[in-house]
């Protein structure tokens, strides 16, 4: 919208020619998302508090979390609004990839909103039944996968990081694979969202990583030099990831320990889905396991805990997801959060190294 308007005036006002550059628009989108978050945050907290829209705490969770009951939740609506508005205003809306990421993000946001709403309306932390929620999530993911498969020249090959000449063409199987990446990322972020600021930190580092991937993949010269798949139009996704990073940063201002507001499923699910669909579009699906290493560790801790208990009636961790294990070991919450952030930064650096180590 704003990009199309201003760029169309470049012949009259030469300075507006700067909007042709993705890097410039990415910076403006990031600043806009951050500013919107700062403006919306206090008013949102005030409204959520007035309407008693507070967090439901699991009775079987760490006892230290009981004091957080009633903290305003559904703050993810602020992230979504800032992210989507900044993207729509600064990105090239003739680019189909922008619409795919926006619609997938909003779709998962709707699922998260329904889940949060049910939790709050009935006063139960369970929300929408897990099978129903997964069905809705896979439906969105499959629609996105079908759309991409039907897009002319879309590459259905799966590339392996650190190897420049190894790829597997999945063909029609790429549709369920894409859905699995999107749904898996969404739920991995949701599992990580258990401490103040814990999830949003890795979301930001992963968003930055994929912003670099998107810009490189969308530039023919960079893609050829780095020997990564060239995806025409993928560069515009850098605007989306920049907005995602700074919408998250703005949310962190209110979510840092002790949190004034939680994101809820309306935030965690779409943020994870956004990372998943960007990974698919930039042809860096497997690298998401590296860049999102914290999310993978949290998810695997749950899988291993459940499998171990069902098979041996014994638990590997004191509690899953993994951050609860460290809580029960006596680690202070801020220490867990910051150390997980540090691990996330390391994972992002390793992921970025795949651009050259091939």
Walkthrough of the structure:
The protein is mainly α and 358 residues long. The chain has one domain (2-353). Helices cover 65% and strands 2% of the residues. The chain has helices spanning 2-8, 22-50, 76-90, 96-122, 130-150, 174-192, 200-217, 220-226, 237-255, 265-281, 288-291, 293-312, 322-328, 333-353, and strands spanning 157-159, 167-169. The protein has a two-stranded antiparallel ribbon. The radius of gyration is 20 Å and the shape is globular.
Q: Helix count, per DSSP?
A: 14
Classification by helices and strands: mainly alpha
Q: Supply the number of structural domains.
A: 1
Average pLDDT confidence is 92
The major beta sheet can be summarized as: 2 strands, antiparallel
Apparent shape = globular
Radius of gyration: 20 Å
Give the uncertain stretches in residue-range form.
none
Percent range of helical residues: 55-70%
Strand order within the widest beta sheet = 1-2
Q: Which percent band covers the strand fraction?
A: under 5%
Order of helices and strands: HHHHHEEHHHHHHHHH
Q: Ends: how far apart?
A: 39 Å
Q: Key terms for this structure?
A:
358 residues, mainly alpha, two-stranded antiparallel ribbon, 14 helices, 2 strands, 2% strand
Task: Give a concise summary.
By secondary structure, the chain is an all-alpha fold. The chain contains 14 helices and 2 strands. The protein has one domain.
Topology:
Blueprint: H1 2-8, H2 22-50, H3 76-90, H4 96-122, H5 130-150, E1 157-159, E2 167-169, H6 174-192, H7 200-217, H8 220-226, H9 237-255, H10 265-281, H11 288-291, H12 293-312, H13 322-328, H14 333-353
Antiparallel strand pairs: 1-2
Helix pairs in contact: 2-3, 2-9, 3-4, 3-9, 3-10, 4-5, 4-10, 5-6, 6-10, 6-12, 7-9, 7-10, 7-14
């Amino acid at each position: 919208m704003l990009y199309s308007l201003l760029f169309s005036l470049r012949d009259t006002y030469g300075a507006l020619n700067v909007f042709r550059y993705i890097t410039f628009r990415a910076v403006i989108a990031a600043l806009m998302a951050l500013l919107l978050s700062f403006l919306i945050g206090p008013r949102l907290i005030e409204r959520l508090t007035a309407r008693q829209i507070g967090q439901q705490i699991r009775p079987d969770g760490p006892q230290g979390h009981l004091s957080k009951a009633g903290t305003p939740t559904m703050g993810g609506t602020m992230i979504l609004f800032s992210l989507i508005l900044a993207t729509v205003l600064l990105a090239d809306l003739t680019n189909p990839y922008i619409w795919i990421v926006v619609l997938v993000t909003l779709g998962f946001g709707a699922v998260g909103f329904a889940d949060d709403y049910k939790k709050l309306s009935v006063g139960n932390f369970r929300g929408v039944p897990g099978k129903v929620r997964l069905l809705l999530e896979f439906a969105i993911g499959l629609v996105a996968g079908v759309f991409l498969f039907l897009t002319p020249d879309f590459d259905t090959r799966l590339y392996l990081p650190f190897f420049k000449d190894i790829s597997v063409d999945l063909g029609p199987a790429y549709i369920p694979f894409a859905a699995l990446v999107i749904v898996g990322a969404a739920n991995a972020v949701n599992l990580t969202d258990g401490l103040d600021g814990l999830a949003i930190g890795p979301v930001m580092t992963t968003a930055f990583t994929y912003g670099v991937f998107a810009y490189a993949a969308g530039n023919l010269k960079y893609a050829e030099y780095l020997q990564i798949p060239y995806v025409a139009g993928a560069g515009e996704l850098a605007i989306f990831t920049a907005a995602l990073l700074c919408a998250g940063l703005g949310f962190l201002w209110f979510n840092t320990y002790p949190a004034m507001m939680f994101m809820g499923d309306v935030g965690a699910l779409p943020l994870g889905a956004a990372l998943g669909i960007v990974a698919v579009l930039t042809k860096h699906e497997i690298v998401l396991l590296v860049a999102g290493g914290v999310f993978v560790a949290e998810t695997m801790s749950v899988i291993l805990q459940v499998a171990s208990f069902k098979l041996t009636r014994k638990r590997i961790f004191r509690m899953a997801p993994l951050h609860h294990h460290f809580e029960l070991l006596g680690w202070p919450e801020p220490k867990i959060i910051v150390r997980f952030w540090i691990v996330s930064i390391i994972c992002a650096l390793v992921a970025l190294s795949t651009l050259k180590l091939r």
